[in-house]
Design goal:
The protein is of the alpha/beta class and about 325 residues long. The chain is about 35% helix and about 25% strand. It contains eleven helices and 14 strands. The strands form three sheets. Strands 3-2-1-4-5-6-14 form a seven-stranded parallel β-sheet, with helices on both faces. Helix 1 packs across helix 10 (about 275-295) and helix 2 (about 75-85) runs parallel beside helix 3. The longest helix is centred in the C-terminal third of the chain and has 21 residues, at about 275-295. The radius of gyration is 21 Å and the shape is globular.
């Protein structure tokens, strides 16, 4: 069996998770890890090559799918279109409000290069998006509710770390129990963003930084914190490493709806994750398999989870899936 040749762009928590996922999937192999750091300073667990990001183009014919593992705040808006012009790509762009714009930019690059670029892959956006679609298609008269956490949000933590004066930070998304129970009731209440979640940040400030400015920059950040009750706590680097180094997460997608006979129904999908990046990495790798198959069929352009046949995610054949999972 020919293995799917994978490249990893960026070797942070998510990149390391993809490397671990590849080790569990025998139909894939890691060819190279690309980094903005000096390659000789990056130690990986596999025998793949570590290559400077600037030299990535030289691997265009050696890699079937490049998995982009940068952050959504500043990395992916640049890297997504750039590398979709060279490789079939998969990424986890998760700034929901900017997905339509990001899609268009990746689509233009991928179409011009005759490549496939699957964007916004993960569990939300990603698996949660699919469940929202399924629930909306089945219960056409109803209302959606999505709750995240309690857990560490990689995208929001990355956004906090990029605030001026922040040395390191972790952000927890905390769902409100009362709102969850209201959503599960089937009564379809109106719940505001602020009623459903709050955000809790633990920040290590740089020496001499203006903490009041940091708090203001975080709380007023559009698309991330401005619409939520946000708590900012300043702690030491030691406290951060001791108490906030794990990366759990999870959440719920709930839809309450009513069918023609006046019956009420509730559909729910939930996740409980010990490691957000490791789970997200597994989703990315499954969609890398799909990108490879789409590319072999000559399909090009940007795609989302809505555009990918579920069977393309699995290493099993159609016959095996019909026998074991259908």
């Amino acid at each position: 069996m020919d293995k799917i040749r994978i490249g990893i762009m960026g070797y942070g928590n998510l990149g390391r998770g993809v490397e671990a996922a590849i080790a569990q999937n025998p139909d894939t192999e890691l060819i190279a890890v690309f980094t903005r750091r000096s390659p000789d300073t990056v130690k990986i667990k596999s025998n793949a090559k570590v290559v400077a990001e600037a030299d990535a183009a030289a691997y265009a014919d050696k890699i079937d799918v490049l998995i982009l593992c940068g952050g959504s705040a500043t990395d992916l808006p640049e890297q997504g279109p750039k590398f979709a012009a060279m490789f079939n790509t998969v990424d986890s762009f998760d700034t929901h409000a900017k997905i339509p714009e990001y899609y268009e930019r990746v689509n233009a690059a991928a179409l011009a290069a005759r490549k496939v670029g699957i964007i916004s892959v993960g569990w939300d956006p990603g698996l949660f998006s699919l469940n929202r679609l399924y629930a909306n298609a089945v219960l056409t008269a109803g209302k959606d509710y999505t709750f995240w956490g309690k857990g560490v949000s990689q995208g929001h933590s990355d956004a906090v770390r990029r605030v001026k004066g922040v040395k390191n930070a972790v952000q927890y998304t905390v769902p409100c129990d009362e709102a969850i129970e209201k959503a599960r009731s089937g009564n379809n209440p109106d719940l505001t963003v602020r009623e459903k979640h709050r955000r809790v940040c633990f920040v290590v400030a740089e020496e001499g930084a203006d903490k009041s400015a940091i708090v203001a920059d975080i709380k007023n950040m559009p698309n991330y914190f401005a619409d939520y009750d946000t708590e900012v706590n300043f702690i030491t680097e030691e406290e951060l490493k001791k108490n906030h180094s794990a990366m759990p997460h999870g959440g719920f997608v709930i839809r309450g709806g009513e069918t023609g006979g006046g019956y009420r129904h509730v559909m729910e999908f939930s996740l409980k994750l010990d490691s957000n990046p490791e789970f997200t990495a597994c989703v990315l790798l499954a969609y890398a398999r799909a990108a490879f198959r789409l590319a072999k069929e000559g399909i090009v352009g940007a795609k989302t989870v809505f555009d990918v046949p579920p069977a393309y995610l699995s290493a099993q054949s159609g016959a095996e899936l019909r026998k074991t999972l259908l």
